[in-house]
């Protein structure tokens, strides 16, 4: 059995006029919180095993095994355990988590409560993007309902031994706080600078205590897993990328929006069947999961949108968030890359020289190229920068520099002719440089020091 009906979006119709927020009573009337009641009769290890056996991988970008991440939390209790929900969603082209919070917030809260039982969590923080004003208010109301119905609070989840408090923590609009340790720093009231690892958050996370960090979409999968089991979950997707997935379609398509299907559909299928086909021209490229993943080129429509095929056949870092930005044949790819790099240069936290300086240099070079001052050596310099900026494990604290480098690498490699057309060969102009009493003739641009 493949994907036959909506799972995460079963309460959110495609017709905008029929959408509404499912508050507590509506959620329960459609089967909500039945999985949580079942989870209260299970041990934490049993819940973790169900999630591990399902093959659920993180939907926030990295695609790491969710059950394995939970298993890293120490079993012995020497203090509080925390759950940090990553609702920052600052990756350009990504808006799936906002969509879930907008209309089905209790699905997320049920996933949080089940995760708390599995990981012995005491306090859950939903770290939400600062610009999500309405969504923060929706969550606050839903959490108040959950407290009123004894899901959160000191009495325990539905009277069980697991006592969970839940809070909304609003960010200040920094892209870097989508990185898990940058999120933790911000959560603690500090500047959102990513941390060196190890120690990893499972051992020393929020306030130095064991912490699980999961994305909104990942946690929304958990109630369905507990209710229907890992075998059902694995009927969708591919052997290594199981389950349903939300695809955020934007750019030059006829029906931009959030769509649900299984992992492993092709890029062409997502454009034609989900987003209603191309708008304004033929397909040229697609950013498959946020700009940090890189770009898929004109001959890669048959690449499968899962956590592996995009990386190995598409030459990208991975599927990422599956926030698809589709570009038609009229798109200027040099301008598109400049726009991406401008974003990176602005959002770099500045800790690592490679990232801070490299992204700024890339932006300046690309701006000069677009202003008509491009030269062949610029392409060599851009490719040199992307090799030294982030593709050297251990040289930067987080993966931000890798994302910047990979966007630059894939844009230039896959659309080299477009870049080369704006970067002609430089003429070898003889300059006379006076050094003492000797005249030295050198090509323009050579180092004369």
Structure description:
The protein has 449 residues and is of the alpha/beta class. It has 3 domains: 218 residues, NADH-ubiquinone oxidoreductase 51kDa subunit (Rossmann fold); 85 residues, Roll (Ubiquitin-like (UB roll)); 89 residues, Up-down Bundle (de novo design (two linked rop proteins)), CATH 1.20.1440.230. The chain is 39% helix and 14% strand. It contains 17 helices and 11 strands. The chain has a 5-stranded mixed β-sheet with strand order 6-5-9-7-8. The radius of gyration is 24 Å and the shape is globular. It starts with 23 loop residues before the first helix and ends in a 6-residue tail after the last strand. The C terminus is likely disordered.
Structural class: alpha/beta
The count of β-strands is 11
Q: How do the SSEs run, as a string of H and E? A: HHHHEHHEHEHEHHEEHEEHEHHHHHEE
The CATH homologous superfamily of the largest domain: NADH-ubiquinone oxidoreductase 51kDa subunit
Give the helix level as a range of percent. Answer: 25-40%
Main β-sheet description:
5 strands, mixed
Mean pLDDT: 91
Please state roughly what percent of the residues sit in beta strands, choosing from under 5%, 5-15%, 15-25%, 25-35%, 35-45% or over 45%.
5-15%
Query: How do the strands line up in the largest sheet?
Result: 6-5-9-7-8
Structure annotation, total helices: 17
Low-confidence stretches: 437-449
CATH domain class of the largest domain:
Alpha Beta
């Amino acid at each position: 059995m493949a994907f036959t009906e909506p799972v995460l979006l079963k309460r959110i119709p495609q017709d905008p006029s029929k959408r509404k927020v499912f508050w507590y009573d509506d959620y329960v009337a459609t089967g909500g919180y039945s999985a949580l009641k079942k989870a209260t009769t299970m041990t934490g290890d049993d819940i973790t095993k169900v999630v591990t056996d399902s093959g659920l991988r993180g939907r926030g970008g990295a695609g790491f095994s969710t059950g394995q991440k939970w298993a890293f939390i120490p079993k012995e209790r020497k203090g509080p355990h925390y759950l940090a929900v990553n609702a920052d969603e600052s990756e350009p082209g990504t808006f799936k988590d906002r969509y879930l919070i907008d209309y089905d917030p209790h699905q997320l809260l049920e996933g949080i409560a089940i995760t708390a039982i599995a990981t012995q969590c005491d306090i859950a923080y939903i770290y939400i993007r600062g610009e999500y004003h309405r969504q923060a208010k929706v969550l606050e109301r839903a959490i108040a309902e959950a407290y009123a119905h004894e899901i959160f609070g000191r009495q325990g989840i539905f009277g069980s031994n697991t006592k969970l408090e839940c809070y909304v923590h609003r960010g200040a609009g920094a892209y870097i706080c989508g990185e898990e340790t940058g999120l933790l720093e911000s959560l603690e009231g500090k500047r959102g600078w990513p941390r060196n690892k190890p120690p990893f958050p499972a051992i020393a996370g929020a306030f130095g205590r064991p912490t699980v960090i999961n994305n909104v979409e990942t946690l929304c999968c958990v109630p369905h897993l507990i209710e229907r089991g890992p075998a059902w979950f694995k009927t969708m997707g591919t052997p290594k990328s199981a389950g349903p997935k939300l695809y955020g379609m934007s750019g030059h398509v006829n029906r931009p929006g959030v769509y649900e299907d299984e992992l492993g559909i092709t890029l062409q299928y997502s454009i034609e069947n989900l987003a209603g086909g191309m708008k304004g021209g033929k397909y040229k490229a697609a950013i498959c999961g946020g700009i940090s993943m890189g770009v898929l080129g004109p001959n890669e429509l048959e690449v499968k949108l899962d956590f592996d095929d995009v990386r190995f056949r598409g030459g990208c870092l991975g599927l990422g968030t599956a926030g698809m930005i589709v570009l038609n044949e009229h798109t200027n790819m040099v301008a598109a890359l400049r726009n991406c790099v401008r974003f990176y240069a602005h959002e770099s936290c500045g800790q690592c020289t490679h990232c801070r300086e490299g992204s700024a240099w890339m932006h300046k070079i690309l701006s000069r190229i677009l202003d008509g001052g491009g030269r062949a050596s610029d392409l060599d310099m851009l490719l040199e920068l992307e090799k030294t900026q982030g593709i050297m494990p251990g040289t930067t604290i987080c993966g931000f520099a890798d994302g910047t480098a990979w966007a630059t690498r894939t844009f230039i490699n896959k659309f080299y002719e477009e870049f080369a057309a704006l970067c002609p060969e430089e003429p070898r102009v003889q300059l006379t440089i006076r050094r003492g009493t000797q005249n030295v003739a050198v090509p323009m641009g050579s180092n004369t020091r």
